[in-house]
Amino acid sequence: MGNNRDIIILGIESSCDDTSAAITRNNLMLSNEVSGQTVHIAYGGVVPELASRAHQQNIIPVVDLAIKNAGIYLDEISAVAFTRGPGLLGSLLVGTSFAKGFALAKNIPLIEVNHLQGHVLAHFLKEPSVEKKTPKFPFLCLLVSGGNSQIIVVRDHLDMEIIGQTIDDAAGEAFDKCAKVMGLPYPGGPLIDKLAKEGDAKAFKFAKPRIPGLDYSFSGLKTSFLYFIRDRMAENQNFIEENKADICASLQYTIIEVLMAKVKQAAKETGIRTIAVSGGVSANSGLRKALLDAAEKYNWEVHIPAFKFTTDNAAMIAITGYYKYLKGEFASQDAVPYSRVSLK
Fold this sequence. Notes:
alpha/beta; 2 domains; five-stranded mixed β-sheet
């Protein structure tokens, strides 16, 4: 058991289709339980109504498991942190309502967390008997997921500024939508990554956006990919099947090139050489390799999260809750979830 100065946070994450609960003691993760939803595979994407229903079924068992596996008593919990947004409103509502009820019942503070901030702060999670270096401030964080592609200057745990972001689609969405065009099952990103390992990244060329500054755009790449597949299929009905690995490798190469070009530009403009990556797409092996190669070439210090912290999880919400707890940043019982939000 901890001493009186230990801050024990229950984290709740329900922004999309994963119901997750975690317990942290200060910045140490004691448990991190995630219940996924397979119901969406048949629809080729997340169905919001089905997602919120599944959260309702999963939330109590997941929280119960997190508390049991952390080996703590309910009365030891200092505060409950929850994802307020961005995400799917129905899904967020389930987590928000549970967190409010729990905080009220136990008479403990409620802490609202920005999901994007959580992804960045996952880098500060400690695990029992795992040695890990944390990024030194200030650092640049490339946040890439299904819904977001951003470059963030992180000056402190709770002081972040977005200096570049997508003006339309996110990188993760580009992976998933292009996978769908190829007839690959949802989610397509991990499958493209797997197939790309066997293909030639220079086999095909796709349009790269020319967006000024540090902002991203992936809608043009998606359109270019769609037309490319349509035209090749008109010539040869078996084109995708015969060239699957090469198509995936070329697409992945292009998306990573686009992402890395802006990161290099941001590092040059800010003079910051500590680079972190977070979000679902940070699990991509091609992106990880590109970052490590750039680290060698440009003398960067690169921080890449463990695979379990790349996707949505409550441990990242709990650690953010810990830093907010230290500053006394608590939410009121009338906090409502929001579907869209920036870091500011």
